[in-house]
Write a structure and sequence with these properties.
single chain, 4 helices, elongated
Length: 127
């Protein structure tokens, strides 16, 4: 045990005298900061790439599709509402799992009538 303590003490003294000479402390701080930044930008990505080569992980693709609600708040959107709703309804998503809710807040143009037409089709709820 004494021998281990003695070896550690000698190593600490060597590091202290060789690396931490007067005026070199700031250089060490600078290079440690540069190394840390370089690792965060490049080193970690390289490490992940090497790790993926070393032990690739297989995964099964998940086929579950959760229910999705698209909520739109519109006001005087007569000019673009038809295109937007048709775009939402033509998404490549199961129709039974897609719920489109459109809320019109005091529109003074034809927004309410557009929402009534789409609401009659059964795919768009208006509140």
């Amino acid at each position: 045990m004494r021998r281990l303590v003695w070896i550690l003490l000698i190593m600490f003294q060597t590091v202290k005298t060789v690396l931490l000479r007067p005026g070199r402390a700031m250089k060490w701080v600078f290079w440690i900061a540069v190394a840390t930044i370089a690792y965060s930008y490049v080193g970690y990505a390289v490490w992940l790439w090497l790790r993926s080569l070393w032990s690739p992980r297989r995964y099964a693709a998940d086929t579950a599709e959760p229910a999705v609600s698209a909520v739109m708040v519109v006001r005087n959107e007569e000019a673009v509402l038809v295109r937007k709703l048709e775009n939402l309804l033509t998404l490549d998503y199961p129709p039974e799992k897609l719920d489109v809710v459109v809320v019109s807040d005091g529109s003074s143009d034809g927004t309410a009538s557009i929402l009534k037409d789409f609401g009659a089709r059964g795919r768009v709820r208006r509140d």
